[in-house]
């Protein structure tokens, strides 16, 4: 028996397979977008807090940039 008696993909099963194979890809894409937006918002909040610290510093004291830790 070379071929299965019932083909896996036909007119009835095509949309079903596309849905169940595309659903995990769509969910992963959605989660990646949410995660990247969260990371970008975290970085912008840190930048805003640095700017706020610099604005509150008295004019007599020089404001030095924070060292970059690698």
UniProtKB/TrEMBL annotation:
Record flagged with keyword rRNA-binding: no
Please indicate if the UniProt record lists Cell wall biogenesis/degradation as a keyword: no
Residue ranges that the Swiss-Prot or TrEMBL entry lists as coiled coil: none
Superkingdom of origin organism: Eukaryota
Q: Which chain regions cross the lipid bilayer?
A: 12-36
Ordered alphabetically, the record's keywords are: Membrane, Transmembrane, Transmembrane helix
In residue numbers, the region (Disordered) covers: 46-70
Instruction: Tell me the InterPro entries matching this sequence.
Output: Adipogenin
Q: What is this protein called?
A: Adipogenin
One Gene Ontology cellular component annotation? lipid droplet
One GO term (biological process): white fat cell differentiation
